[in-house]
Amino acid sequence: MKKLKIVTIGGGSSYTPELMEGFIKRYKELPITEIWLVDIEEGKEKLQIVGDMAKRMWEASGYPCEVHLTLDRREALKDADFVTTQFRVGLLDARIKDERIPLSHGILGQETNGAGGIFKAFRTIPVILDIIKDIKELCPNAWLINFTNPSGMITEAAIKYGGFEKTVGLCNVPIRYMMMASEALDIPVEDLNFKFAGLNHFHWHRVWDKAGKERTNEIIEAVYNPNSTKEFKGMENIKDIKMLYEQIKDLALLPCSYHRYYYVSDDMLKNELEEFKKGETRAEVVKKLEAQLFELYKDINLDHKPEQLSKRGGAYYSDAACEVINSIYNDKKTEMVVSTRNNGTISDLPYDSIVEVSSIITSKGPEPLNWGKFDSAPRALLQHMKGMEETVIEAAYTGNYNKALHAFTINPLIPSGQIAKDLLDEMLIAHKNHLPQFKEKIEELENQ
Amino acid sequence: MKKLKIVTIGGGSSYTPELMEGFIKRYKELPITEIWLVDIEEGKEKLQIVGDMAKRMWEASGYPCEVHLTLDRREALKDADFVTTQFRVGLLDARIKDERIPLSHGILGQETNGAGGIFKAFRTIPVILDIIKDIKELCPNAWLINFTNPSGMITEAAIKYGGFEKTVGLCNVPIRYMMMASEALDIPVEDLNFKFAGLNHFHWHRVWDKAGKERTNEIIEAVYNPNSTKEFKGMENIKDIKMLYEQIKDLALLPCSYHRYYYVSDDMLKNELEEFKKGETRAEVVKKLEAQLFELYKDINLDHKPEQLSKRGGAYYSDAACEVINSIYNDKKTEMVVSTRNNGTISDLPYDSIVEVSSIITSKGPEPLNWGKFDSAPRALLQHMKGMEETVIEAAYTGNYNKALHAFTINPLIPSGQIAKDLLDEMLIAHKNHLPQFKEKIEELENQ
Amino acid sequence: MKKLKIVTIGGGSSYTPELMEGFIKRYKELPITEIWLVDIEEGKEKLQIVGDMAKRMWEASGYPCEVHLTLDRREALKDADFVTTQFRVGLLDARIKDERIPLSHGILGQETNGAGGIFKAFRTIPVILDIIKDIKELCPNAWLINFTNPSGMITEAAIKYGGFEKTVGLCNVPIRYMMMASEALDIPVEDLNFKFAGLNHFHWHRVWDKAGKERTNEIIEAVYNPNSTKEFKGMENIKDIKMLYEQIKDLALLPCSYHRYYYVSDDMLKNELEEFKKGETRAEVVKKLEAQLFELYKDINLDHKPEQLSKRGGAYYSDAACEVINSIYNDKKTEMVVSTRNNGTISDLPYDSIVEVSSIITSKGPEPLNWGKFDSAPRALLQHMKGMEETVIEAAYTGNYNKALHAFTINPLIPSGQIAKDLLDEMLIAHKNHLPQFKEKIEELENQ
Amino acid sequence: MKKLKIVTIGGGSSYTPELMEGFIKRYKELPITEIWLVDIEEGKEKLQIVGDMAKRMWEASGYPCEVHLTLDRREALKDADFVTTQFRVGLLDARIKDERIPLSHGILGQETNGAGGIFKAFRTIPVILDIIKDIKELCPNAWLINFTNPSGMITEAAIKYGGFEKTVGLCNVPIRYMMMASEALDIPVEDLNFKFAGLNHFHWHRVWDKAGKERTNEIIEAVYNPNSTKEFKGMENIKDIKMLYEQIKDLALLPCSYHRYYYVSDDMLKNELEEFKKGETRAEVVKKLEAQLFELYKDINLDHKPEQLSKRGGAYYSDAACEVINSIYNDKKTEMVVSTRNNGTISDLPYDSIVEVSSIITSKGPEPLNWGKFDSAPRALLQHMKGMEETVIEAAYTGNYNKALHAFTINPLIPSGQIAKDLLDEMLIAHKNHLPQFKEKIEELENQ
After folding, report:
1. I need a labelling partner for B2 at 20 to 30 A (CA). Which of B211, C279, D215, D287 fits?
2. At how many degrees (to 10) do helices A173-185 and A216-224 cross?
């Protein structure tokens, strides 16, 4: 039997059961022989709980896949075929800071695109580059499937600064929008065609039916027209505040949930400030949810993914990861939306950028479907976000404080000026244990 | 003696004496034979006052130039060599609305880049296109020198939608920054070299001395370093709130005054809200200043530009216009910063955009010095602004309400969501007399 | 039963039986209800022969598809779902001139990229634009599948000048190269992945196996290394003269058969001059072959495609056409190489160019897989050819003689100077009956 | 008195007196204190002759500039302010081979764009990179003014591979075309405006008068219309064979002399073959001319540039070099045509290419006037040449034989195939003493 080794970094994550479920479901196509769940000292307990759960799931499946739990990343990586990353530097407590500190200044935290997302990138990029160093040494032919957020920026850092081209970034948001389109049109999702393009958590899409007719505008009507009778469930991790019909009507594109931060920033902020006051920011909710999940996972009789996991915003993420791996392994040519090198796919963005686009997943990696140009209004926001992302990544890589302030200054969710600087400084100090690149500046700030 | 005919649309403007002074100063190179000051019925009285003043100025100069005052634009345009535009649709009262209505919602008005600027574009674009129709018929070989704000967008509309390539847009901001550089380095302005690139009211520049040494960073230190002992006078029309040293230090570019709205938005807003409460928004201040100026102009003994005119934010505007005309007429090849077609000058912006860049002004028009690419952080903002401008112009041209809302949504100075829509609607109604293209929508709004 | 109407313009072509075979083979997926074979007066007899043959083929198949023969194009087009074009303006005699006249000057004729190809474009473009006018009126929702050569230029004219976006250009060359790769690697074609990019008759490709490993260089070794023991059959319509191993070895791309004209121009010319002397230019050979085919088609017992048809260079063309139609109709997402709008797929070519690239054929048309940039050496030739194509199309559209001469001047297969002008003039006169756009110039030439 | 040190590499060149004359003429603006003429052992005698002549010229001028003659390049470079390069690796005998070997195969040699030019690049690029290594160490603030041919490729190698941004490439062809325009229009050259863009020896230009009126088409009529009565002297180094009127008439651009190789290749070849037979190739003519010049230079009474020097094709080259140096030194902002980094100036060419364009020469180097896009026909050739140049430079830098063959294959002046390979091989062997990078391959070829 041919070896097929998967390594999951951040294996102690509450999402691991979904990942296991995804692999088990695909076992006949994707006969994994060993899975290594890797975590760090601080995550040891969670790794044990979720790792035992994973073992039970495989046992129940009847498939002969070995599950290894380890804190030794290098041992795990040796000769891996696929590496998935779902770790969270600083754990959920760091995310709580990412969200609460900005809100304490009256500013949206937003753990992927806002101040929180910038700090998540600052914490994660040094770690992902370290992992890549190991991968290049220990399993240079492996594929790295990243679903650690901010997924687009992490993928860009991995490819541009880490020089590891075989990195694919993943997100579950596109899947949600495929489902929504299906719901809006009453057409099964497999009978629709989609084209997505943009950045991670910042993409647009168009929808066609099997007869080749574009249905984008009908979905706009169903979702955004106030006279529409359709009801839609939003994304679990984003408050369901709708963009205005008139904002979307002539766009000829469907926005994604994160666009709400840019289209209805007033309501989004109001809402998050309320949650903040109640101690119910998304991070806090997730922390409780996660604690409940780990309680469930401790049940030695539980050997399948519990329903409750789907309430996490990240649902489908792991399933998408399994499908990417499956499609690469078997050259299945599944059409998926992934973060990959632009190379001209979106004409409005730099050639070497990472973009999130509809791609055919082949054994040689994702082949993006060409997109071309955007109209002026979406282009304005898209180009802004990409420039912001590049600035964040550069600051994360170099530890240049002024670049970091520049990233805060141009981030559309952060008001600029002294307020942005104060927020940056406070967050640097709060996260100091996970920001080696900013060490010197943080000490200077602490001594002021 | 060869005819050389200049037509000034918006001739009743308080700036006209500066324009006259500029022409008189250059008469030996630029022997103008006739100047036609054109205005509309509502501006008749001001035209008479400032026109009489203009006549006195020429008389005092001793040069044989005829000054004509007229409300008949078409008569004036016949066979013109140069047409300058400095009109303000809706006069200063419209500007007061542009500033006060947004501030009444707690939002920056900003008469060129913000909500106010968008409405100024909405009011002005139909008029400039009308003027161009006349120019094409009556003086197709003339050059159109536009200094009506928002100068970049008006120039883009004139060239892209009006199809009149011989349009040059002007602004006085670059001149101010040349002076500031000179002050910062204690080097006469003529001993410095500059390179500006970006958009109108949204450009950056670099500075070199005559030995070819770049001095940009020294100016950054002199202007932005809190330890600097240099004092600078700001632009009269923009509150002198400084950007933070750390924001600028690693930029390797000098920003312009309008960047403050994007770099220190918090202070800018606070300040304008205070002015708003005191009834001292810039528009209101200008209105008082203008009334004083017209009082002065009535003095039949006054035959030269009064000192007080320099306090207007637009000082040097008219002088720049005279110099552009002079340089075109005499093929002087003066290096100036003008709004002109991009054609690849700035690689980050669309080929057919209007950009504001250092150019050699020749008898065949401006020849932009190539600029190339920006770094990610300034690029982010620049591309955003251009996409926003394009959306504004398209909305102004088509009268499409949804495009107008989109322009408001993506404008960085306007919070997005219902608040933006409410503001848009209120401004549409407030300016209804000057927005023929939105007539139908405004009626609908009024009937709600 | 739902109507599904196919119209084939140039229905009297000897390729029609292959087309019928392709449709019959796919009938269960693609239940065509009516096929209209259209031809012109001069092709009436051939239409009757091949049309009767087509009818026998369908009868033998047992499927209820009606075959109509007509000279009335407009009647045929009414409500068509798909229109295929395989006509040859001036018939094979025109092609004989395209090849023999240049060779009589010692110059390669080359019926698609050389002087012959330019004249084929000159004759065909006015006709295709006429057809499109009819399509827009009579069946605006149809897809136009063009396999009239020069397929890339005709498709570019149809989309750019005809404004008919639903045009797809086809060629059989890529299929041949897929087969060659399969032969070189001893791997079934369905177990290989390909990526093609370039222009019609001027593309490169790369090959991977199902495990994602690139095999391009192995194919280069098998095909071009003089020590290789593999034997390959060339394309029937291009003399099998090999490019040099050293030319290809470091290219990391596989060229196509038409590249021989640019890589081993000396041998190609020598060979064609020999054929010319013997009266065996490709056109003359084809004419004989075609006469034989029509003799076969007359046999009232023949009701399937005869083997001999495969000897034509165009074999697989019709099958590719059937598959494109099938994939559009059924949204099959077959990966095929087609001529379609660039839109940034190949970064080195203009956005609005037609390119020939690997695409997913969906019900909304071809979705090109993004390609990006070429290395300098292939880029040099590719950009040259595209500029040449654009010049040809513009000359064909406008009838501007100087543009036509410019196209000849920059065509790499035609020596420049007086010789090119003499050749152009002689060909204009020789083809005068099919060049309405050059009428005036031709008369002038004849009267010299 | 402030030091101002000029170093001329290839100081023994027959052009040196023109250079001296140019410096003497400009002495009041450009007070050079020392000139170092550097040459190699093989050029020692010529260096002595021309160096003595140079000394006499300065003495006659009365200006206190020291002239140093040396074979020690490093000593000369120490603290230089400007370095000019006018050396010829392998001397004129190498050029004779560059021209005669191709012609012996019936192929144009062409010492800048053809096979000869490719070999000149192969020989020169290793040397220029060596010089740059010394410059970076010994005079890192100097400007390198290169007028060694092929000037564009050498400049591209210096900047891209040598990483020395302060390199400016020069050519005298544009000056000739300014004079021709002046002659054609009967307008003094200083009353005309020009815009040049393209590559070295492959550029186009447009011409305007001081009133801003374009005069390009009038010059086309005067030069190319067979009915024109104007007579023009061609470039001394290129046979005066005219392009056809119909080729140029609708171009709206004026070509340069080297375009003849691509527009009237037949006549150019015929002519050079005749010269070849007579032993009068350009290189041989130049060698005789040069011998005569050195005879003149030996005259100890000669202390000014002799008239005969102007007959060399390179006349004005040295004067252009003096003017570039003067304009950089004094920030004169002279408009000149130089080879410099593209950075988007010509949209059709790669961002990092070297292009030859109208530029303002400032103390910070050349500032190119933006050009934008070309029409399809000139674009085709231009892009081809740039890709060819890149391939040549890469082959020259790496010593990759296959790349070299590729450069030969795609060079439009060399027929492709075995003939190109044979020519390449023969030239490699013939030039083996100056091609260290191809050493191994040459040995292999010699042993075949």
Report:
1. D215
2. 90
ipTM above 0.85, yes or no: yes
Q: Does B150 sit behind a cis peptide bond, omega within 30 degrees of 0 on the bond before it? A: yes
Hey, what are C351's tokens?
A: 């956005």
Strand-pairing partners, residue A83, are A7, A144
Picking from B193, B351, B369, the nearest residue to D369 by CB comes out as: B369
pLDDT, residue A73, reads 98
Find where tokens 């302010």 sit.
D81
Range of weakest confidence among A234-243, B186-195, B290-299: A234-243
Residue A348 main-chain phi, psi, to 5 deg: -80, -10
- The H or E element spanning position B136 is helix B115-138
- What pLDDT score was predicted for residue D313? 62
CA–CA separation, A387 and D362 (whole Å): 31
Give the global pTM. 0.96
Question: Using CB atoms, which residue from A246, A391, A403 is nearest to B421?
Answer: A246
Phi, psi of B193, rounded to the nearest 5 degrees = -115, 145
Give yes or no for A262 touching C (CB within 8 A).
no
Q: So what's the pLDDT on residue B430?
A: 98
The pLDDT tens digits of the residues spanning C332-387 come to 999 999 999 999 999 999 999 999 999 999 999 999 999 999 999 999 999 999 99
pLDDT recorded at residue C307:
80
Predicted local confidence at residue C231, as pLDDT: 79
CATH class for the domain made up of D5-169+283-307: alpha beta
pLDDT of A130 > 90? The answer is: yes
DSSP-based three-state secondary structure for D36: strand
Residue with tokens 């695909």: A26
Rounded Cα gap, residues A88 and A111, in angstroms: 12
Q: Which residue of A has its CA nearest to B400?
A: A250
How far is the C-alpha of B408 from the C-alpha of B118, rounded, in Å?
A: 8
Burial class (CB in 10 A: 0-12, 13-18, 19+), B161: middle
Q: Each residue of B273-312: b (16+ CB within 10 Å) or e?
A: bebbeeeebbbbbbbebbeebbebbeeeebbebeeebeeb
Q: Which 3-state string (H, E, C) describes B84-123?
A: EECCCCCHHHHHHHHHHHHHHCCCCCCCCCCHHHHHHHHH
- Residue type, position C277, single letter: K
Backbone angle region of C230, left / alpha / beta, with phi > 0 → left and psi within -120 to 50 → alpha = beta
Instruction: Check A15, A177, A258, A316 and give the catalytic one.
Output: A258
- Contact with chain D for residue C403, Cβ under 8 A: yes
Residues of B in contact with D360 (CB under 8 A): 335, 360, 369
Which residues from chain C sit within 8 angstroms of residue D224, using beta carbons?
none
Query: How far apart are the two ends of chain D, measured CA to CA in Å?
Result: 62
Which residues on C lie below 8 Å from A344 (Cβ)?
344-347, 370-373
The pLDDT value recorded for residue A241 is 81
Rounded distance between C-alpha atoms, residue A380 and residue C170, angstroms: 37
Q: B373 and D343 in contact by Cβ < 8 A? A: yes
CB-based contacts of A281: which residues, under 8 Å, 6+ apart?
Answer: A96, A99, A100, A103, A109, A272, A275
Find the CB nearest C328 among A212, A364, A369: A212
Judge whether C364 and A192 are in contact, CB under 8 Å: no
Single out the catalytic residue among C258, C261, C316, C397.
Answer: C258
Closest alpha carbon to A51 in A20, A83, A85: A20
Place domain A5-169+283-330 in its CATH homologous superfamily: NAD(P)-binding Rossmann-like Domain (3.40.50.720)
**Which residues in chain B have Cβ-Cβ distances shorter than 8 Å to A388?**
376-377, 380
**Annotation: CATH topology of B5-169+283-306:** Rossmann fold (3.40.50)
Q: Inform me whether the pLDDT recorded for A283 exceeds 70.
A: yes
